[in-house]
Amino acid sequence: MKPIKTLFVAMTCMSMTACSSPTLEQRVDQLYDGMSRAERVAQLRSIYISALLTPEGKIDEAKCKELIPDGIGHISQFAMDLGMSPDEQRDRVARLQKWLIENTPNHIPALVHEEALSGVNALDATVYPQQIGMACTWNTELAEKKARLSATALRAIGGTLALSPMVDVVRDPSFNRLEESYGEDGYLSAAMGVAFVNGIQHRGNLHEGVAACTKHFLGYGGGADAPETELMEDILLPHEAIIRLVGSQVVMTGYHTFNGTKCVANKWLQQDLLRKYVGFNGLIVSDYGSIPQIDEALSPLELCVAAMNAGNEVDFPTGDIYANIPEALEKGLISEDVLEKAVKHVLMLKAKLGLLDNTARLYSNGHIEFDTDEERATSYRLATQSIVLLKNGNIEGDDKPILPLTAETLSRLGGRVFLTGPNANSMWALAGDYTFQAMRYFWKGKEESPLHPKYVFLKEGMEQKMPQGGSLLYSRGCDWTDVPETVMEKGGDPRVAEQKIIDNRMVDSHEPADWDEALRMARQCDVIIAAMGENVMLSGENRDRTKLTLPGRQEEYVNALVATGKPVVLIAFGGRAQVISGLAKKCAAVLQAWYPGEEGGNAVADILFGNVSPSGKLCVSYPAVEIHEPVCYNYGLEKDHRIAWPFGYGLSYASFKYGNMQMDREVPTDTESFNLSVDVKNTGNVDADEVVQIYVSPIDSASRLKPIQLQGFARISLKAGEKQTVRFRLFPEQLGYFEGGHWNIAPGRYRVKVATSSQDIRQEQEIVLTGKRHVKKLREHYLSEVVKQ
Description:
Blueprint: H1 24-33, H2 37-42, E1 46-48, H3 61-67, E2 74-76, H4 78-82, H5 86-103, E3 111-114, H6 131-137, H7 140-156, E4 161-162, H8 186-200, E5 211-217, H9 228-235, H10 237-246, E6 250-253, E7 257-258, E8 261-262, H11 267-278, E9 283-285, H12 300-310, H13 325-330, H14 336-352, H15 373-386, E10 388-392, H16 407-413, E11 416-420, H17 436-444, H18 458-465, E12 471-475, E13 486-488, H19 515-524, E14 527-533, E15 543-545, H20 554-562, E16 568-573, H21 581-586, E17 589-594, H22 600-608, E18 622-623, E19 643-645, E20 656-663, E21 666-668, E22 674-682, E23 688-698, E24 709-718, E25 723-730, E26 737-739, E27 742-745, E28 748-757, E29 760-770, E30 774-776, E31 785-787
Parallel strand pairs: 1-2, 2-3, 3-4, 4-5, 5-6, 6-9, 11-12, 11-14, 14-16, 16-17, 21-29
Antiparallel strand pairs: 7-8, 10-17, 13-15, 18-19, 20-22, 22-25, 23-24, 23-28, 25-31, 26-27, 27-30, 28-29
Helix pairs in contact: 1-14, 6-15, 7-8, 7-15, 8-10, 15-22, 18-22
């Protein structure tokens, strides 16, 4: 690759220190001073790469000269847009960057962005479990590794910015984008979000990683209208922790309204809260098409002024509204200072990523291999750890639970396994929203092959892993739905408005669903595996369902399977918890599999057959009834009758005994930390993982703390019979609360609990904070630490 010709080559040595290298700030200042107004505005705009291609798919220089003569700040969602192989995608990006460097006044490359929620949103890229499943792993180390692998893959094809992670704290079980979140808890969302950003940004080495964009600021999916304490202590927590602990580079606002004003035009939200309170000094960008949604009565010029003056700096995805910046400047509607700050934030991010260096690494050379063995192995491990065992009952007349279906169990039952259901033999049981296949199907109506990358369906996984003496029969039995069940949500990504057919579109399974045939086969078998749930058209952005029960006639079908008298193992796939508690009472076992990614079939099969013990723990309160309002475990200590399985819940094939909890009993409010340890023993007969959870509750009636709050966790692996001492370092700030614009650590009595779920407390002790109330503008410690042995 030829060296980039930038103004930086000609920079003279700065005064102060003879011939010292200029700082990034000095380089950006000098570059900005040498730019025309048109070049500056171009840095705040974006474009789809497809707009710059010939009909044959090559970069069209004539279109480049016409559409981006002064350069361009950003290339939008390029990999999904192109839909090409990794090498082809890289080549298009390389050609475009070459054109920008050689043909625009200041030779500035573009920031190229893509989604990376469950892997890079690109053809052939590894598909990991959807984010709600990731949260159920409670495995920050593996989550960081997954994000690091995604960053490496994205960098290889020319991407430098990931529009991920989504760290909205979502407490409405029916929210259509719940699957993209880490669930209902601010602490767990913060911990998983910090891991994601650490991975995607290669722990601050932005020349190797890519920039993270945390979204959506603030309260998208619920919480924007929450009381101040909940907003500042819970909803803001993931954003605040990610920005302050690991330096997330970009923040995206939400489509929604905050205190009566759309977030993208909300000055208090972007400037007072995000910049002044949290201290964010990076780049603020709009969600796709959110600026035109500020107010339909406003002209493009007025929309531009509203967004710019509120603090929004980049207009995604095409920058059409920000084309009005020159007119706004001429009329004095926005100031040169506003423009300067925004452009310099874009340039600073490019400088941090190394894009403005003479030897910038804009993409990889040579052949690019996606979905490597390491990536597939990581996807598989995450899938096995994301699956939650909700019920594991005994078969009538047998004192052993039905799962796992080992060779011994199958021999005892008879050995004939019947697999059925719409998600038994389908990619749509595995691919969540914002994967390449889902995005292409929803936005472009194109059904991509399940071979790029290779998806392992449940049927294939069970066939390959069936224990000796077992046999598998299969019939689909029923479809997801017989009629459309989603309603096109108003608002959000404006591209939805162009897809009026969405209300009438259903996924084609490409195989028959013979109800009668399936029930005949079910009666001939010894155990039934029913793979039910949602698909890409029933869960995801702008896809609202009016109910949370299983779609279509699926519940009726499972009841018919139960009526055969054979034990039924229900597996629920999808992007949110579904109301299945009535069915669960009738079924022998229940697994929640979410959207487990490309290795989902192998992961579910290994859990069914006992090759892996299930270890996922719920990141949401699993509803027993229809709930269309906020719900969270930390609203109270008493069991909520509307909840079937509580936050943090998940069964194992092993059992665990907790004991010998040790903790500092008296700690000054201004001390740095205190210690906790507990012994955990695997008392089962199989090796298994356990998630040790730490909760805090107030004892004093005057305390302002929530009734119960997660404040730490550790995922540990124990062999059968093994005992381990798990040690934590916690911080008094974790017992604090927000009031009066500050974080307060007050003296008082608190109860620290060691648990296997928010409702299953195994050990607890009292701690007393002594001294005076300690006040801080911001917390310094957000997450407890697991002390390595």
